[in-house]
Protein: LacI family transcriptional regulator
Organism: Humitalea rosea
Amino acid sequence: MTAAAPTTLTDVARHAGVSRATVSLVLRGSPLVAAGTQLRVREAVAAVGYVYNRGAATMRGTGTKTVGLLVTEIDNPFFAELTAGASAALDIAGYIPFLATTEESAARQDRAVQRLREHHVDGLILCPSMETRPAWIAGLAERGVRLVQVMRFVKDSIGDFAGPANEAGMEALTEHLIRLGHRRIAFAGAAVMHSGLRQRVAGVRAALRRHGLPAPLVLRTPATRAGGAEAAVRLCAMPERPSALMCCNDVVAFGAMQALRERGLGIGRDIAVTGVGDVPEAAACLPGLTTLATNPRGIGREAVRLLLRRIADPKAAPEHVALPVRLVVRGSTGGGNRSGEL
Amino acid sequence: MTAAAPTTLTDVARHAGVSRATVSLVLRGSPLVAAGTQLRVREAVAAVGYVYNRGAATMRGTGTKTVGLLVTEIDNPFFAELTAGASAALDIAGYIPFLATTEESAARQDRAVQRLREHHVDGLILCPSMETRPAWIAGLAERGVRLVQVMRFVKDSIGDFAGPANEAGMEALTEHLIRLGHRRIAFAGAAVMHSGLRQRVAGVRAALRRHGLPAPLVLRTPATRAGGAEAAVRLCAMPERPSALMCCNDVVAFGAMQALRERGLGIGRDIAVTGVGDVPEAAACLPGLTTLATNPRGIGREAVRLLLRRIADPKAAPEHVALPVRLVVRGSTGGGNRSGEL
DNA sequence: TGCTCTCACTGGATCGATCCAATTGGCAAG
DNA sequence: CTTGCCAATTGGATCGATCCAGTGAGAGCA
């Protein structure tokens, strides 16, 4: 009653009156086994309550059907959705993810990868933390670790990548502001730069340059709610205040909006604010936040596709996928409408 | 260069001039090995770039140092934070979690658990999906699966549990409304009941009964943003409208607030609204949402503590932990203050 | 009948770390 | 000088699924 009987292939084989090898073939869906035998084996599996032992199978070289999913922080609606997309796609393929968070620490990231390697994961989906060295990425590849980078791509590294079309999206968002008459634009949330942020700033810069407008004022504040508020405060203290504040993500924008409001500025009237991400709160807040919908779920799915391809063919040519983003215009860039999409 | 040399204990042993058994002892920190030998072995490990193979170790009966973490949905700030708390606590203990989502489907849940069993997880942290049968939980226990339930506890099941003190919290929240003069109270988001929801409604009911007030009007709307809006619409259509709407969670409350606002009702003035969870948006929206802070991170940590204890001592007495919740009063229950905590 | 050929199935070796019983060398006590 | 003992180390068997080289039965054909 109490003890869990650890049933093995041998138990099933005995029960079905065949050999271990035959049971193994049936379990892996081999066509070499006669239909009648397959049936008998499957009945035996059910009868003895057999549970496949992936660990034992791994020792003979088959993959583990596991992958590591490393994000900087799971308590961030963006990464939570990315994780959901990746997890669903992996599930369909019969894989299951190990979850680990790096908290932006290269040391933690290295420890996590080490632990995942001990578990012989078939591959890794990684949002590289700050300070990740290209040599580190290369070292993993050399040791046979299949790896797809998401959201950020370590400069001078090689390999697969899936992320949002940051630059094109920010260009569209900036064009929108320019059409509304904005000329001086600030960018908030660039305290520490990574490839994704660099692309976003580059997009803003490109759009402004195309229209012969001055480069954006980059505020190097943290990419947090508090950082957004800090940026707003600094903005308010300026003699010639920019008329639009573009934030590196939605959360930063929420912080900025609250601080601006407390200083008596009308969002969308006295100053325009934009975000990136289109998290649920962006539609619900007042006024609604103009932002870029970046489809994190799709990025997670795409990363899985790339990783499974890489596992199947380790020497395939590296692929970089930039998923299209969608401009979502709401009240925070004017138009007087209180909320909701235009 | 290209091939990944799969180094084993034997390689390390050869390099250090000792036997496999000795290397194994060193790696597991046995005190039986002389200090000098330990040093030589550790140097050899580094020299050959050895990576421990947990799968092989598992075959000799040692645990896998993995656990399964099953939540209904990861793209829900509450479960994301719970996951973060659990993940951090597991990391400290040298464990790593498999992540799986059930999407409230008992069938998906069963499939996920099956897959986790194939991977020989040492234990399971589970937020049981709707329709989970107590017999299913009991069956797992019989087969030696160590399991801790979080947030919800399957009725008539046995085992460990960690969750918020729902009933006490809702009593406090209801008392707050009663102090403010509310007499007729509605509860939104009870389309499908689980133990957590039952406790919440029971808390409301208990506080009202204590004050000789009528039982709450339970609106059986879905526990989503849209469900909250639906509840608000139904509320507005009533002849004798309750003066307070208590929502089963913050997200439902946001939906309700938006719908009420669109119908010209002043939140906190014409009608009071409350949530549960205290997600970041609760502090940022206008007016701020009065809610219960439920400490999801702490629940995740606590679940890990219970699970590790259960793994260490499978026949310990079951423990149920209700983590204290904190009443956070903001503008949505009146007082005229626009935002922020009182 | 004798021969080849295919199909269905099988026994034994194997993966890499761990456990156990056994061995070695060194040292103190008798 | 032997004996006993302890600390340090080791070889071999083991866990459970998989791979491989086979075996045997039966069909097809001359």
